[in-house]
Amino acid sequence: MAARDGLARIQLIGPEAAINEQLAGQDGAEQIDVLDPTTSDKLDGYAAAYLELRKKKGATPEVAREAMSGQLGFAAMMVREGDSDGTIGGAVRPRPTPSVLRCRLSARRPTPTSSPAVS
Known about the structure:
Blueprint: E1 11-13, H1 16-23, E2 33-35, H2 43-54, H3 61-69, H4 71-80, H5 96-106
Helix pairs in contact: 2-3, 4-5
């Protein structure tokens, strides 16, 4: 409803075919963007940004690409890079909070004025 009513731009992140199958026939599905991190033209840029953020912690290009190929990491970097205003994640994971927070915190560089992570 939020997408259909123009309240939000919804972007679902994950395997495109599987998501489109779930969306088929749903009211407002045509208003929802589906992004697959593994085929996105943003993947290399996000991996480079992640590598820059995490290189002092030992990240390698391979680790960065792997992290940005996942749904949560990709979503966190979308926010960091200004491609999204926020994320809602982890609803289908057995222990969502640790996974969501881990990805969110690894994609940010805390500053003295940054707000705390909220789950």
